[in-house]
Amino acid sequence: MRTITSIRLLSVLLTIMLLAGQPVSAASPAPIQTISANSNNSVVILKDGTVVVWGSSNYGQLGMGYPIGTNTIYPPVKTPLTNARFVSAGFGKTLVVTNDNSLYAAGSSARGETIGAIYAPTVFTKIMDDVSIAEAGDMHIFVIKTDGSLWGWGAPDFGVLADGNSYDTAKTRTTPLKIMDDVTDIFADGGTAYAIKKDGTLWGWGYNSQGQLGVKPPANKTAGDSPDELYAVFKPRKIMDNVIAVAGGIDHTLAVTKNGDLYAFGSNQYGQLGDGNYGGTLDVFNEGIDSYDPIMIMSGIKDVGASGYLSAALTTDGKLYLWGLTAYSNDPPRLINGMSQSSDPTLVMTDVEEFSASGHEILAVKSDGSLYAWGTVTGGNEPKKIFDNIMG
Fold this sequence. Notes:
The chain is mainly beta and 392 residues long. The protein has a single domain (9-387), classed as Methylamine Dehydrogenase, Chain H (7 Propeller), CATH 2.130.10.30. The protein has two helices and 28 strands.
């Protein structure tokens, strides 16, 4: 499961300037993402540019040469990578972009994610140049290159590579496919992907089981129906205008507009839309509570995240809110107050500058550069201080 993205502040500022018609220098600073959490591993960048990883390396995703296929949980360790500015932790893999725009990867290549490799590299390996942003999905990878072009490769499940294919292992892509131009941000979770373009338009494609792409799902679902025909949106479609941040879970979407308003749409089964209601089941779309039209939830928001049935939002004054289903089976709850589910945004921390969260682990960086973590990887349902010197 793809993790919630942390603040991509410079990318957001660039989008706002473009929407406002302000000139943007060709030498605008590169996007920065300093923390990323996945269900069983995390990665951060320290102030000196060093990359630190911890958690499971069962697919080699920590990049430290640890044996694969084990259940060992490793403590934080510095990797050999330095001069990093952007990190992304995905299912069984970790991506790092350095200041010279080189992309390094470690971990799973079960579906060709490391560009043709037939093994899981257990040490960080350079796989691409001229990369601005990298997004580690489940069985796929997306990158935005320095010219604003968006590329993807790996498994095409539910049409997530926007190439018209789905569930065909013969169509797995081990070389990058160009998807679109003029992109400033990308978010991928499960079989759904979202892109924000320079003009502030939000585009989405892939899995659409509950209207999370802004398209009404089929009214009648039967056991014999093809998932491709029912759920897949095979080509990018425009969803909204004036968007600066986006995140998506298994079957819901969160989007922030340039004025700070947070909108949600898709399934509300576990209260993940955050409007105080609970919607239909996995197989039933409740017209009155689930929604394929955006619902305004909060204002004053600068970043959002979603993973699984979990939703999160960070306000402009540093307040971090969580809602939806925040725990799985016997995992520790994530709301700090002991709750594992809420249909209303719940305040969990203040003075937050940056956050990242999966359905199992949450990371939060405070304004003083200290990093707090809680969840399955760290252990416990209360924030635990991990570092003092995260890159700001």
